[in-house]
Amino acid sequence: MRDHALMGVTTAARTAVALGTLLILARTLGPTDFGFISIVITWSTIVALVTDYGFGMRALRDIGAERERAGEIMSSSLAAKTLLVIPACLVLVPLILLGLDLTTEERIAAVLFLLGQLAFSYGDLTLTVFRSIGQFQRETRIVVVTALLHFALIALAILLRNDVIAVGLAFLVSRLIYAAMALGALSRLVHLGSILRSTRQAVAQRFASSTSFAVDSGATNIFAQLDVILVNHLAGREAAGIYFAGSRLLQGAVPFSVLLASVHIPRFAHRLHTGARDLLRYGARIELEYVVLGLIFALAFYFIGPLFTNHFLGPDYAELNTLWLAFACFTAARFVAAGLGVQLMALGTGFLRTFGIIASGVITVACYWWFIPLYGIQAAPWVSTLGMVVLTIIYGGAVSSIYRRQRTSAEAPTMRTGSL
Questions:
Q1: 370: domain range?
Q2: Using CB atoms within 10 A as the burial measure, which of 28, 41, 152, 268 is most buried?
């Protein structure tokens, strides 16, 4: 329970700052400028996810199973990520500054947000090691301090300038501080110079072992970002700003899903590695926790969402009140699917997760293209809910099949022994 409590504090700090930042930006910038920031953050998040290449989830599983290799695994993971970040920056920064149809201010802000999001992804990858070895208190201290600093810098940028460049600069500075503090904490466990001296073989092995996780994580998170991109493309920047204000509030629930995954994946992987007999019971416990948490968040969004719109965001976001029921349904379905997905990831069945994500994602994107032009942003969260239901059905069938095979293989030796 201590691990749950510490991760709860960490997640609460992240969530509170995310929501506080959302409130300030949405209310002061208005739907149009906030819509621009939402698109920039969405695309930057996708780039960061691609450069992560599943290293974080793979490290979480590997270090959970073999804690004595924590330093080696993290060094090769950070080195491999850097090999993706450098070419990404060399391609994307000139493209943003010279190629996209943006104003000068928007170009500069887009680069600042991109670099900030990449720095943030380094910090997140680095902190994986502390979750994997059970030192949650170190992550909690770093996250709480840097989250408060992030909120203060964004608020100061709004107070002094109230434009997208000032916000982007504050975002970049706070994310660099977060990454620096995370790497500093890691340096107490592993010599950071070993990252630069990682052998080609170690880095290549890290790429190879993380590929299934990269496909899984990339498909999961990229499809999750497409709603804002498609709303912007099909309904315009102002609609994207309104929609993003609500979907961003929903993202406050995601870290709690990650919290449970961070606690349960190493433990589940350790049970699997040691051949524990309570694997099915532990899987049922994981799913129950996700279902309960999903229902709590769904009810919270349904009842608190309209208050958030009316009293904090203001009349410019009134259309958001038509979306809260759909957002609540989506949240409940998302947590049910996530509980099953965590079990599949801990079992090492990346292909099954990837198949489910791609299948549900294709259906979701096709429905976005069909229904958003007809019904506007009201259609988007219902389509997302449909995608989560499809994903839950696929995940549920895969998990049931795996446990059934494990039970059959466990009973077979007993039956042979009995016949003798």
A1: 2-406
A2: 268
pLDDT class of 67 with cuts at 50, 70, 90: low
Nearest partner of 110 among 169, 196, 189, 183, judged by Cα:
169
98 burial level (CB within 10 Å; 0-12, 13-18, 19+): exposed
* Residues 68/273, Cβ–Cβ less than 8 Å: no
In a domain, 415, yes or no: no
Does residue 101 sit in helix, strand or coil? coil
Dig out the tokens for 368 from the structure: 């976005």
- Rg of the chain over Cα atoms, rounded to whole angstroms, equals 22
Q: What share of the chain is helix, strand, coil (3-state, %, to 5)?
A: 90, 0, 10
Give the total number of structural domains in the chain: 1
pLDDT at 179 over 70: yes
- What's the average model confidence in pLDDT over 110-119? 95
**pLDDT tens, position by position, 351-409:** 677 788 888 888 998 999 999 998 888 999 999 999 999 999 998 888 888 777 767 76
173 found inside a domain: yes
Whether residue 16 has pLDDT greater than 80: no
> Could you tell me if 345 and 402 are in contact, meaning their C-beta atoms sit under 8 angstroms apart?
no
3-state secondary structure of 163: coil
Please report, for residues 75, 119, 180, 189, the alpha-carbon distance to residue 72 in angstroms, rounded to integers and kept in the order given. Answer: 5, 21, 20, 11
pLDDT at 253: 77
> Cα–Cα distance between 128 and 206 in angstroms, integer?
15
Q: Are 254 and 297 in contact (CB under 8 A)?
A: no
- Contacts of 144-147 with CB under 8 Å at 24 or more apart are 144/9, 144/10, 144/13, 145/181, 146/174, 146/177, 146/178, 146/181, 147/13, 147/14, 147/16, 147/17
Three-class SS of residue 243?
A: helix
Distances (CA, A) of 203 to 23, 78, 90, 94, 253: 41, 9, 21, 28, 34
Q: Which amino acid is residue 167, in one-letter code? A: V
pTM metric for this prediction: 0.73
Instruction: Work out the burial of residue 1: count CB atoms within 10 Å of its CB; fewer than 13 is exposed, 13-18 middle, 19 or more buried.
Output: exposed
In a domain, 270, yes or no: yes
For residue 392, what pLDDT is reported? 92
Q: Measuring CA to CA, how many Å separate 127 from each of 108, 184, 189, 282, 327?
A: 29, 11, 12, 25, 30
